[in-house]
Amino acid sequence: MRQLYKHYIGGEWVDPAEFATRDLINPATAKKSGEMVLGTAADVDKAVAAAREAFESFAFTSREERLELLNAIIAEYKKRMAEMAEVITLEMGAPKTLAERAHAPSGLGHLMTAAKVLENYEFHEDRGPTRIAKEPIGVVGMITPWNWPINQITCKVAPAIATGCTMVLKPSEVAPYSAQLFTEIMEAAGVPKGVYNLVYGEGPSVGEAMSAHPGIDMMSVTGSTRMGSAVQAASAPTIKRVTQELGGKSANIILDDANLEEVVARETLAAMRNTGQTCTLLSRMLVPADRMDEAASIAHQAASSVVTGDPTKEETTMGPIAHGQQFEKVGAMMQEAVDEGARLVVGGPGRPDGCPEGFFVKPTVFADVKPEMTIAREEVFGPVLAIMGYETEDDAVRIANDSIYGLSGAVQSADPERARRVAAKMRTGMVYINGAPGDISAPFGGYKQSGNGREWGDHAFADFLETKSILGYNA
């Protein structure tokens, strides 16, 4: 059994101020895999003090020094990338192949991207006698989720290191093994004492203490919209910067000139990836209303090809839901969709065959979904696809934008110019055209209640920097 009993503060593994623990559960078996200590406000105080002390010197390190540090972290990460994939499968149930090919490599990708951006990033600009300087914001509090754990840790930590910030990380209490391993990587890389600190705990205790702490200059959080709102409220009295990447209910517009069979099959499988636990999931599929039955049939066939089961096996393509509470929510939302009149195409409530234990659900597709249905409006965070019909191109855009969220979206069309035109009308932070792959250097973030700020690539640096005007600098 794994035991996460110490925080990492000031370059040392330290005992908590109080000793209380939380059981960690393997979602594939619903059995205990370890224990994690629960931090308190006192632990946060200690971590913030260490980060503030370290900031006094780390803020003034050179570009070359921070590049050297990032490259050292990259080297250590590469040594343990296979282990990173293993612990992600254990902690949140990602299939072995997905953990090896997507989860673990994403961490390396963010570290390498930050290093590349740092090489030529302009930290100042001269305008006549005035210098406009970009300086590290200070101590950053980071709260990360369980669904893409190392991806979200590194896409915050890497630009923070690159810009000269120090930090306190609270990883998800559901999936902390990857954070433990990453902290060991940071220690092995020689990160200066206090620059990076880790405090285990839950949101109402550690997360709230971080948000309200006057010694933290910025909060960078990823999670549900409800959680983001709570962080914003707790941060308000200290007027700190808060950047958030939150929920989504993203629309995938399949225009009438697209190859329906090819696109629906591909996008249905994409909706089941990571067991649907992805904030950018294209969970609303919009198809021409007169082709609803055809689309439903194609989606049925695609979803039926998903192999659900033991995530440690090579042949598994969909693992369990990451934790019990989410498992119950997904099942309840499936049932609610049935009760509200959505047509169940495949899957639905209940466990899949051959999965008597663990938090497994069926790959599920609903058709004839109406905009007012709960399944069309609320984030499920599970392998549930809602197929909706539209009459015209403008109708499709209207339905797509009829959401409190605006994180992601997609357009499928045989005409690239038409796809670009529709993409421009979508009120969302990112739009995929015709199944384009992700771009780790492009800005990542949302409109509306999907959050604010941008992560990834050079845009990530901006959130961690303050701007100072130095008048007479070049006089």
Automatic annotation (TrEMBL):
<feature type="domain" description="Aldehyde dehydrogenase">
    <location>
        <begin position="13"/>
        <end position="470"/>
    </location>
</feature>
<dbReference type="InterPro" id="IPR016163">
    <property type="entry name" value="Ald_DH_C"/>
</dbReference>
<comment type="similarity">
    <text>Belongs to the aldehyde dehydrogenase family.</text>
</comment>
<dbReference type="InterPro" id="IPR016161">
    <property type="entry name" value="Ald_DH/histidinol_DH"/>
</dbReference>
<dbReference type="InterPro" id="IPR016162">
    <property type="entry name" value="Ald_DH_N"/>
</dbReference>
<protein>
    <submittedName>
        <fullName>Aldehyde dehydrogenase (NAD+)</fullName>
    </submittedName>
</protein>
<dbReference type="Pfam" id="PF00171">
    <property type="entry name" value="Aldedh"/>
</dbReference>
<dbReference type="GO" id="GO:0016620">
    <property type="term" value="F:oxidoreductase activity, acting on the aldehyde or oxo group of donors, NAD or NADP as acceptor"/>
</dbReference>
<dbReference type="InterPro" id="IPR015590">
    <property type="entry name" value="Aldehyde_DH_dom"/>
</dbReference>
<keyword id="KW-0560">Oxidoreductase</keyword>
